[in-house]
Known about the structure:
The structure holds five protein chains of five kinds. Chain C is 31% helix and 23% strand. Chain C is of the alpha/beta class. Chain C has a domain at 123-184. In chain C, strands 6-7-8-3-9-10-12-11 form an eight-stranded mixed beta sheet, with helices on both faces. The N and C termini of chain C lie far apart (45 Å). In chain D, strands 1, 8, 9, 10, 11, 12, 13, 14, 15, 16 and 17 form an eleven-stranded mixed beta sheet that branches. Chains in contact: A-B, A-C, A-D, A-E, B-C, B-D, B-E, C-E. At the C-E interface, helix 9, helix 10, helix 11 and helix 12 of C face helix 7, helix 8 and helix 10 of E. One adenosine-5'-triphosphate binds at residues 23, 37, 39, 57, 59-65, 222 of chain E.
Amino acid sequence: MTALAPVSAAARPRVSYRPGRVMRRFLADRVGVTALVVVLILVVIALVSRFWTPVDPTAQELLDRLEGPSSAHWLGTDNVGRDILSRLMRATWTALTSCALAVGLAVAVGVPLGLLAGYAEGFLDGLLGRISDVLMSLPPLLFAVAIVGALGPSLTNAMIAIGVLLMPRFFRLTRISTREVKNEDFVEAARASGTTTMRILGRHVLPNIASPLLIQISFGAAVAIVSESGLSFLGLGAQAPTASWGSMVKEGFDRLAENSWSMYPPAIMIVVTVLVLSLLGDGLRDAVGRQTGGRR
Amino acid sequence: MLRFVATRLLTVVPLLLLLTLVVFGLVQIAPGDPAAIIAGPEASPEAVEQIRADLGLDRPVWEQYLSYIGNAVQGDLGTSYTTNEPVTEVIGRALPRTVTIAVFAMLLAVAISLPLGVLAALRRNRLTDRLVTGAAVVALAVPPFVLAALLVNYLALGGLQLFPPTGYEPLSEGFDEWFRFAVLPAIAIATISLAELTRQARGSLIDAMEEDYVRTARAKGLGRWWIVGKHAAKNAAVPYVTVLGLNVGRVVGAAVIVEAIFNIQGFGQLGVDAVLSRDLPTMQGVVLVSGVIVLLVNLAVDISYGYFNPRVRAG
Amino acid sequence: MTGPVSTAANTPPTALTTGRETVLEVADLGVDIHVDRDWVGIVDGVDLTVRAGETVGLVGESGSGKTVTSLAVMQLLPPNSRVRGSVRLGGRELISLSEGELNRIRGVEMGMIFQEPRRSLNPAFTVGDQVAESVRRHRGADRSKAWDRAVELFELVGIPDARRRASAYPHEFSGGMCQRVMLAMALACEPSLLIADEPTTALDVTVQRQVLSLIGEVQQRLGIGVLLITHDLGVVAEVCDRAAVMYAGRIVEQAPVMELFDAPQHPYTAGLLHAMPDHVRHVERMGVIPGRVPPPHDFPAGCRFHPRCPFAQEPTCTEGEIPLRDVTPGHTARCARLGDLELEDAFYG
Amino acid sequence: GGGGSDESPAAGAVDDSAVLRAGWTVGPTSLDPHMATAEVVWFRFGMTSIYDRLFTVNAAGEVEGMLVDSWEYTEDGLQLTMTLREDVTFRDGTPLDASAVKLSLDRARTQQSPVVKARMAAVTAVEVPAPYEVRLTLDGPTPAVPYILAENSGFILHPDLVTSGDPATETNGSGAYSVESFTPGESLVLVRDRTDYWDPEAAKIARIEHRAVPDFQAFSNALAAGQIDIGQFQPNNVASIEGRRGLQAVPVPQGISSDLLFNRAVAPMDDLRVRQAINLAIDREAITQALYPGSEPKYQYYREGLQGHDPSLGPIGRDVERAKALLAEAGHPNGVDLGEMLVSTATTAGLLDVVLEQLAEVGIRADAVTVDALQIFPRWAEGRSAALLQFSSTGLEPGAGASTSWGPQLNPAGTTPEFDRILAAAADNRLSQEERNAGYQELNRFLREQAWSSPITWINYPWVMTERLQGFSAEMDYATTLGPYDFRYLSMQADS
Amino acid sequence: MADTTSATGSAPALTVTGLRKSFPAQRNLLGRVTRTVDAVRGVDFEVRAGETLALVGESGAGKSTVGRLVLRLIDPDAGEVGVLGRDITQLAGRELRAMRGRATMIFQDPYKSLDPRSQIRHSLAEPLIAQGRWGRRGRVERLGELLERVGLAPHYLDRFPYEMSGGQLQRVAVARALATDPELVVCDEPVAALDMSIRSHVINLLRDLQRERNLAYLFVSHDLSLVRVIADRIAVMRRGEIVECRPTAELFADPQHSYTRELLSAIPAAHPRNRTFRAAPAA
Ligand SMILES: Nc1ncnc2c1ncn2[C@@H]1O[C@H](COP(=O)(O)OP(=O)(O)OP(=O)(O)O)[C@@H](O)[C@H]1O
Ligand SMILES: Nc1ncnc2c1ncn2[C@@H]1O[C@H](COP(=O)(O)OP(=O)(O)OP(=O)(O)O)[C@@H](O)[C@H]1O
Ligand SMILES: [Mg+2]
Ligand SMILES: [Mg+2]
Ligand code: NI
């Protein structure tokens, strides 16, 4: 007797689908857990800043501007005498909300379209795919600048721009993952037993693309933070008096010669946030195992 | 192979068309009246009307689009609203600055990422690997503008004053001169790509080393370096080159901020200025040209797949 | 394509099995792999010999450790593993050799072919290049000589239009053709031992026949020893001179094929034989072995097969080490109740 | 006559072959002075070195002849006759005479252009009664025309350039310099290529390179690193750069101020009490001290020492209580939303934050919208925004300045009959200097009473330059009105 | 030349006539198909109730495609597929869904055919929900019964696929295929991915169930020795066509088509005595 199918296919572990193990592996990854903790701390800081900051972040002591750290102002004061620590906390809120909204927009548009294109294939798929190719071919920041330029500088518009920027990522990922899942035997099995398309999408396709999506959200959030701070640095993002890391870096940079200090706290916040978001993404990716669709 | 290249070339055409559509659409959503901008703040309504007619802005949108494409194909991207020069000329002036710096940055990134990535992959999970990957992760998190600010503060100003903090000299002024001006912006632009490419080089080499054919090569008694240099490298090159292509866009994007900091009147700066001053033709041109560059780079990447991976040649 | 003609069919096999020198001698081989902070014993106490011109089958279910054993012989185990025991190739101990020394042995004195021929060939280089490469590295031949040798090898393994096909890429070949290329590659330096790890599992029956016949043919011509790993007793029955049955990291029975099929001594071997579809015997039901193969970290004490064994007795089968015992010369089995079992019909539930 | 001052900080041997590198935040996009979109940008970016004007304005804000030797108005104030110097020639020897002047002026007032044509609207005809005499017919007895002809409108181009050249890319003027290279929006390199310039005091520098450095920090980096020799600085940053590598700072009280302009046409800005409340909310002293050190708080519309200043108008102090009371009186006891407040990208860093916060403290809220400096006026003119935070310049002549500052571009609400009456009464060339001054003072009081805007600070710009530069001072031509932008009398000290 | 008549006289569960299907193999730039693979090129056969028809042939012969066409998981280019008396190619919507309760499928690799993220309970309930014939409570009961029938304890309902062995999973897959009391089951290499000791479990189960419920099997397989044991009739496929379709014993005794002969001669012997490729070793 012979069996042409590779027997070891059954023996090969399919790590990517073991929810319990994914969790365990993630928790065993010290870097990933630390990153998650830092992200949570950032979220807490952002939430707290809505109710409490050491000093009113908008209160200005005009004559005590550009001071170094002191007991009254732990991180010193900025160009118009505001408490940098308090502004930094408030800016955390700005960063995280705008990041969440940008990523949310990208997901809200990219994922359904990706599902549609991946499941339907054909002309629609080709068209959407091409559009995303074109969007991906535009240099990200320049494209964001152009969108903001078209819409007018504001944090909302910056978020829209970043959302548009991130959309193709989510679209592509969803499309590829959907394609792959769609051709899986278990989807065929579901169809064979008369399950409706909507139910297949909801019960089989979505849960199975959830982990690559989560990973991509983590990386997308990092991209959003970088882009938002970049746009704010250029003056195209958050507008006064909203505190934003990018504009705080810009303020500090403009005062480099007078006070070389005030640039660093927001810069460090950006770097740390981006760092932990990408470490989180790395951790999730490692925990989930080698992913399909993540690589081209 | 020839046929493969030809088909690849053809696939770019619809992308280019879509690109022009995106670029043109971008301008359509922009509020404000271009004619009023050209006319200047103190112009009369008639003057504005006259300009509108001269520019053909009173024609239907699709007509404007068709004539835009028609002209673009002939290398005419319109006339800058602010300088009244042909956009191609404005871009032609700014582009070489960015391109030389970007190429420098990419060379830097490749030259450093390859050895580092290979080293890390071969010393996987050992100290060298951890140092390299750790540094790459951190570098990946430093936005170019932060890095640029640090470089300016410490290397150009401060006590060291090793390099000029602003400006650009073309290569025609001599390599030394160009290098002095280009090195800091190039580092600022290159770092993220460098980090990503290092990770990619490491990752794809590790992946390749786990493939069955590497086991075959080992079973043939081939030496480790031979296997890495021949069998793994050519296969690992595909994802690496892909990421390299994707980073071209990122580098041009990073130029937007870095050029502002270094006051280089390059492509990015041109784009930002055009956006800020609503110089729509220039803005269109910048987005279009950058898109075309990235598309062409990706085309080159695609074609390179044909070399690295004979399977795709079959189509 | 060369037909599945078996030219060697008339050669008396006895001349091959006896009297020839031992090519491979594996003694008390053990492999541990480091998984999740723990060393897990995957394979242990494996003894195997392969003589020149002989085909030895290594058969067992998935996960029983066949591949790990073969990789240990080739010294190709992943870095997170350690090997115990002895592997002697042509009398030379391999376990202690350096990587450089091994590289002068692998591909020269022993060659290996794998289960998935397509994945085992480098997609980025022509097949000719991949074969010629071996020749160049080990024989120091120049480019064109090596290429000629590759073409010659392709002719040997029955690739039609060899000179032209040598400059094709693996993806332009069918699975069977790829396996021929692999074989050519393994034979490039005329090794004394060929290890084939499920070489036909991914192939069609007709192609399987061709490849197996080819291996036999080449073996006859070159007089090499073959270690053939398979999970298919049919293949063992067709081509092997002797066979070893592996279960849960151990060899449970080893015998000349005739004896193994006629008089299996270990219940597991008997179970496997009964589970082979047989149109005469299986009109109603097929033989079954209850349960499943345990994963390496769960290997039970005593006889590793005892939880599935209809004859298992406490404590005879559940405690202590059960040694491999001789049944007849050349036939050994690892069963605590060796000899007092009636194995026929035991597996028809 | 030249306004060059010899009170330079350090006098020494002049280096006749010196190179001067000047940095500006914006560069002009063409070489055509008449096509300027923002007069000052063209003016300061080397245009004064290439072309000569009919008039110039000294540091006291008074107009003086430059190419014009003498000038007079007719009795009814409707004609201005100018007699030209006879010793001025172009490079090719062509005399700069009345016909050349007519050609340039006619081009300036008739050619469709962003700014200049509108500025020349008062001139309805140009005649040449004699070879060196030009007569302008005016549409009213305005005193502004000589001032206007001291700026871009008064640059005289070579007749050939006007008739057959392209002034956007070529230059041909009577100045001592011509263009070596020009990159629109970026740089302009001028070289001195004639020794027969009519004013021997001028043109002591062999080569002038103007460069645009838009980013503020890049600008100060460039100065600190010695990549540029002179630049206008932001007041609050000068401390950092002073004394570095042989740099000196010269404060110049230019006629430029930061103001919060109101659109009286939209609610709630149509209510005087709201406008007054805003004025009372702003703490000018603190803002000036913090963001504009060395500058003066601005309480009225004309600067001390210039026409129209009224010493009787005292400071406007910050008074949160009264501001709130006024708001309550106006029907906004819980504060008021102004709506959109436009801010130019060129506004001093931090000013917006401070203004918003100070307004917020009395309960006035506004949505700041940042707009590019070049587009902010069209946007403002649309009339939908409530306020505009912007630099404004007084202009060379109070009357002309007033009609621009409160003209449709900068004042979407328009003027009132009362305003027009006061302005028309003051801006009359038949009046004496003192009479006009009194008229402008009345205008000044009117604006402040009606709170048409909230003035904030008169900016004293520090100019930072290499110590080798001589002849730069607050007493240069234009210095206190437009800014010290006429570089003709600067010189560089030879290295010792 | 295919013999489509069946040995037994019972009613046909499946009648296939003139079935054709081609797939796009190459597209040009505009997405238009420039080359096609004819996977199935005019196939006729029939399977009667209680009968097993095996479909054998080399890889790529089109066996799976036929299986998928029969259940209309893909649409045929031409031909009729009569399933339980109705032409499935003409059904749509509700009717098609109902038909999928009566004709079901078992796939090759149970690790792939069961959603790795769903508990067995959910995978098993899916066909019941789709058919909507069992209430919530009835479903729960039925799931237990189904598992029991394939020889698994009810606590397996809460397991995830990765917690189970291949053989257990394939039994779950069998349970799923039988959940809606079908009359026809298409088995696409149901044991090819299983270890030999497990394989016989599943085969025995399938045979028991067939006898119990008079099921019709369309049994796709590579494995000729297995097919010889379980099939009533065998259809040999080659390049999209059935070259020979005969009762099992007849086919093995007297293969007509050269390809069938080639196929049969390639089956490895069950005992070294009967070797055909190489000489038998000494006893
Ligand atoms: N690199 C490894 N890390 C951890 N465990 C391993 C590794 N390689 C093999 N194993 C484990 O060792 C055991 C034996 O594996 P091996 O591949 O030798 O089995 P096999 O008999 O070849 O099976 P198959 O028929 O599936 O090829 C399995 O349980 C497998 O999971
Ligand atoms: N969805 C598809 N798109 C394109 N080609 C397909 C598709 N499905 C099958 N084919 C092609 O149709 C032919 C028949 O495939 P099919 O899977 O039916 O063969 P099979 O006999 O089941 O083979 P195997 O034994 O390998 O499972 C093959 O050439 C295959 O490549
Ligand atoms: Mg194996
Ligand atoms: Mg199939
Ligand atoms: Ni036992």
